[in-house]
Amino acid sequence: MTQVVPHHGPPLHLRGQTYHGRKGAIANAFRYGIDYVLINPESAARGPWLFSRNRANVTSVQDRDHGGAPKAGTGLAWVRQVLAAHDLAVTGKILLLTQPRVLGHVFNPVSFWLCYDWQGGLRVVIAEVSNTFGERHSYLCHRDDHGAITREDHLHATKIFHVSPFQPVQGGYRFRFDISDAKIGIWIDYSAGSDGGLIATLTGHLAPLTSFGILGMMLRRPFGARRVVALIYWQALKLKLKGARYNPLPPAPETEVSK
């Protein structure tokens, strides 16, 4: 069974890699190192000195950044509302996998809410997607029979949210999750018919988050969210120079969450 041991303790550090490979006639691919944290929002356990919850620090995770509109989120309360609205009973812990704020700044192209049953089985994942236009939409991922999600499961969602201006708002996502107490593996296969699509992955090993690890993060990948946004625009420039079609920003989805 794909599962993480839902923890009451301090945050974990995912020192990972993300890969994006574009499908279709105009090829483009990149791989970057990236840092995520895995937190239990209900845990009272303190993190390292250089990390805080809901207050300023070198790194932090704040509820207003997640669950709802950007900068106006309500964190875990929003997740429970979404689960109730879709008649999804979650009896165990709910964890958040996200990039932390660094020196007060954050931009998360995608964060993941991991929802467990009381036995530690992963039952629901909410993929919280943000674009560079200040918008957010979340995709609700679960098995049709509501059973525990395994590494073999492929969970589908219809794309209705504008992310990259070089990809259409059509087609669908296929998600796969391989999550344990030692590692994270997330694969997203986006297909848009003849218009292409892309493969996106997030992989890496989990370890306790420490101040030493945070300092290493700052040395390896300084500037935090500014670096993330700069890399997004760099890849956009490459696609423009290669002749990729630019799609203007459409109206935002009417719903906050979809499948």
In terms of quaternary structure, the protein is single chain
Q: Class by helix and strand content?
A: alpha+beta
**SSE pattern:** EEEEHEEEEEEEEEHHE
* Overall mean confidence score, pLDDT: 93
Q: Describe the main β-sheet briefly.
A: 11 strands, mixed
Rg, rounded, reads: 18 Å
Overall outline: globular
User: How would you write the strand order of the largest sheet?
Assistant: 10-11-12-13-1-2-5-7-8-9-14
Q: Helix tally?
A: 3
Distance between the termini: 23 Å
Residues in helices, as a percent range: 10-25%
Give a summary of the structure in a few sentences:
This protein is 15% helix and 36% strand. With 259 residues, it is an alpha+beta fold. Strand 12 and strand 13 form a beta hairpin.
Describe the structure.
The protein is an alpha+beta fold and 259 residues long. 15% of the residues lie in helices and 36% in strands. It is built from 3 helices and 14 strands. The chain has helices at 76-85, 211-220, 225-242; strands at 12-23, 29-39, 51-53, 59-61, 94-98, 101-102, 110-116, 122-130, 136-141, 155-158, 172-179, 183-191, 197-208, 257-258. The strands form 2 sheets. Strands 10-11-12-13-1-2-5-7-8-9-14 form an 11-stranded mixed sheet, with helices on one face. The longest helix is centred in the last third of the chain and has 18 residues, at 225-242. 34% of the residues are buried. The model has no long low-confidence stretch (mean pLDDT 93).
